[in-house]
Structure formats: structure tokens, C-alpha cells
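Q: How do we represent a protein-ligand complex in a form that can be generated cell by cell?
A: Start from the inputs.
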Amino acid sequence: MEKTALRNAIENNRDVTKLGEVASYIPELAKGNRDALGACIFDTGGNLLLEGDYETKFTIQSVSKVITLICALIDNGKEIVFSKVGNEPSSDPFNSLLKLEIEENHKPLNPFINAGAIVCTSLVAGDNGIEKFTRILNMIRKLANNENIEVNYPVFRSEKLTGNTNRAIAYFLKGAGIIEKDVEDILDTYFKCCSIEVDVEDIARIASVIANNGIAPWSKEMLIPKEVNRIVKATMSTCGLYDSSGKFSVDVGIPAKSGVGGCIMAVVPNRMGIAVVGPSLDKHGNSVAGIKVMESLSRALELSIF
Ligand code: DON
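Then emit the C-alpha cells for the protein with 6-diazenyl-5-OXO-L-norleucine bound:
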């Protein structure tokens, strides 16, 4: 049943990829394949399903913000993290600076907009950017059960060269006293996290751990403390797709996180992790066909938690 639903969701939505564009504001991302569409389900019983262009490699981009939040929460506790970043959805684009100046204490609205993720990056344990990055990369490798995950350095260099809006956000946060230490070092860590190269199986495995209350389905090892896992699921469900999070909740109804590399990571509590890749994006920066695939799967498998 799941196999058929996954196949139909991919094959019936291939044409939707033509309705969007590959991200080009980071020049290296423009090399992504606009037509690609692939998906993976990894369920909490440890079963794997792959469909469509599942071999497509892509950079994790903003899906990394989930793992950065996990590390920041484990390393600091929720009181410290949420004294520096809020939990409210944003109706602005992911890279917006608009609310930073007017919000109380200049706190970014949530951990999944760029400003909030830069704050969480600064909170991850480590004396410098390299140590913080190593902590996040190791967590991604553990959650994906894949020691071979690495950074795509051409994408990293491209992000670093063109990331002026992120630079403006980070210097503002430093001026407001929300981030400490060296701003360029934190930005390098943030850019490197976005540039980690993965495939849909890696992301579906990460999602399956979150779906399974923080326990890896393949080893039964507790990788995310239960309370951290609960906060992460809640934040994905309210803020995961930026200014289209509300619509996604109505149409699909499960915690999810998108990235401009074209991935959507989705968590069906106690059932499965799902990853879709389709680098063609809508105007919000979400995979245009990926959202349709998620809608089809949600209908066919009754995934909505609401
Ligand atoms: O900060 C940026 O511009 C990117 N490296 C990550 C943004 C992203 O994936 C937003 N997601 N939809």
C-alpha cells in the first residue's frame, strides 16, 4: 500500500516540477536538476522504500536547521535557547530582517528562519566554528546512520561569497547582543551546515528517528532526548515551511521542514520519516512538486495528525 502510494505520488506529480525554478540566488545551486523528483519512506519498524529519482544528491540547506536546533537544545537546555530565539511562526520570507528590529529584545521569531538558525548555530557546543560544525555534522551522520556524509565545498564557497543578507542578519544580532563570539566564524559554520550533501534516504532516516521519539529504528539507540524531540516536532509543525507553514498544515498536516536544495523532510509521529527531493521551487523557497507529493501521500495514507 505504501509502495503504491509513493509511486503514484511521484509519477502523478512529475509535471508539477515545471511550475517552479531551481534556486539561483546561490549560483552553485542553479546547477540542480529542475526535473528531478524522488522520495524515500523509512518507517519506525526499520523498513525502507525508495521511489523516482531517489539517487539525486542535494545540499541539505535549511533542513539542517532542525539538527542545529537539536544540538542547541541538548547543549544548553530549552530556557537558554528560548531566551535568545522565539517559538512563533513568521509570515515573512526565510531570510527576512524586517521583524528583527521591532521584536522585543530583537529576538528572531523562531529557530527555522535564518536569523533564528544563526542564533542556534552560535549556541551549539564548541569553542569555535570548526568545533560547532563538527558537532552538527556528527549529529547528522548519526541520525542518518551514514558516516560518509560530507560538505559540498563548491556550494559552501558559493554561499559564503553571496551570503550578504545572512551577513547583515548576523551582524545585527551581534550588535543586539544576541550572539557572541566571532560573527564570520559563526556564519562559516551556518553556511557549511547548509552545504552538507545528502540524499533522500539520509533525510528519511533522520525523520524516522524524530518520528520514533528520538530512538533510531535500526539500533534502538536513543539519539535525541524525548523532550528535545517533542520541541523539535512542534516547531517543525508551526514554522517548518516558513510563510506557507499554515497552508502545509491544512493540506498535509504533519511536522516538516523544507530547504532550498529542494528537500522536504516530514515526520509522521510513531509511523515514519519521509523525504522528498525536487529542486524546482515555489516562490516561498519550497519544493513545488515536493509539496504536491506530500499532499498525495497524506491523502493516500491518512497521515495528517489533525
Ligand atoms: O541561508 C540561506 O540562504 C540558505 N543557505 C538556506 C536557506 C534555505 O534553505 C531556506 N529554505 N527554504
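Residues 61-62, 94-95, 114, 159, 166, 194, 258-260, 285 surround 6-diazenyl-5-OXO-L-norleucine (CB under 6 Å). DSSP finds 13 helices and ten strands in the chain.
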